[in-house]
Amino acid sequence: MKKTALITGATSGIGKATAKLLSQNGFKVIITGRRKDRLKKISYELGDQIYPLNFDIKDNYQVQKALESLPENWKKIDLLVNNAGLAAGLEPIHKNSIEDWEQMIDTNIKGLLYVTKIISQKMVKRQMGQIINVSSIAGKEAYGKGAVYCATKHAVEALTKAMRIDLNPYNIKVGSVSPGAVKTEFSIVRLKDNNANQKVYAGYQPLTADDIADAVLYMATRPAHVNIADMLILPTAQANATVFNKKNH
Ligand code: 8X3
C-alpha cells in the first residue's frame, strides 16, 4: 500500500519540491497551505495522488477543521513534513517589528505544534509514523539581525529532540533537516523585496528546493530500523551561517 505524506507550506519552495518528489516516488501527498489557488494549481500539475488541504497554520481552529475534513482514504498519515515557516525582516533586535516576530513565532513554532499534536496522536494510535521537521542552519547558530528567526528555528531543534523522546515508545521516527542558503521565495519574503534573490545569492551557487526535497526523500525511504535524526545541508560555498565563499563580491 502507498504511504501517505502530509507536507505543510507546500505551495512553494522546499514544500512544493518535496511534494513533487515524494509523489514521483510512490507517496500519496496531502499538500497544505494558505494559498488556495496555488494549492489547486499544484495538485492539478501533480495528479491524482495529491490532495490539497487549505488552511492557515497560524489558526489552530482552521488546522483542526481541515485535518478533520480529510476523506477516509487520506486520513492515515505515515509521514508528516513540518515545512511551513518563514523569516520576516532582517533587523537588529531593537528595530524589528513586533508583527514580524509574531508571524514567525505563530507559523514556525505554534503552527508546527498545532499540526503535530493532531497527527502525532493518530501515529501513536497506529504505533507507526515519521515526522520530519524542516529546521535551518539558523536552528544551529544564532546570527545578528536574525534573532527571532534563529530563536524559532532553535525551538524547532528542541522540539525535534524532545518529540523524538516522547514518541520513542510508539515506534515513530522524528528527525530534522536543516538547510543553509536555499534559493526560493525565502529571501523575497524576509526582505519584502521582489529583487532580493539577485543580491542575496550573488557570487555563489545556493542550494535549490530540489536539493532539500532529495534529502527528505532519503530520510523518508530508509529501512524501518533507521532514523535519520539530524541533517545539516549547506551549499559548498557556505561554511556556516555567515561565512560564504563569494566570487567578485
Ligand atoms: C534559512 C537559512 O541562513 O537565512 O533558514 O538562516 S538562513
Beta strand count: 7
β-strand percent reads 5-15%
Pattern of helices and strands: EHEHEHEHEHEHHHE
Total individual domains: 1
The tally of helices reads 8
Strand neighbour order, sheet with most strands:
3-2-1-4-5-6-7
Q: CATH fold name, please?
A: Rossmann fold
The top level CATH class name? Alpha Beta
Largest pleated sheet: 7 strands, parallel
Overall pLDDT metric: 97
Structure description:
The chain is globular, with a radius of gyration of 17 Å. The protein has eight helices and seven strands, in the order βαβαβαβαβαβαααβ. A seven-stranded parallel β-sheet has the order 3-2-1-4-5-6-7, sandwiched between helices. The protein is of the alpha/beta class. It has a single domain, classed as NAD(P)-binding Rossmann-like Domain (Rossmann fold, 3-Layer(aba) Sandwich). The model has no long low-confidence stretch (mean pLDDT about 95). α1 packs across α8, α3 runs parallel beside α4 and α4 runs parallel beside α5. Bound molecules: 2-hydroxyethylsulfonic acid. The site of 2-hydroxyethylsulfonic acid has 7 residues, from loops.
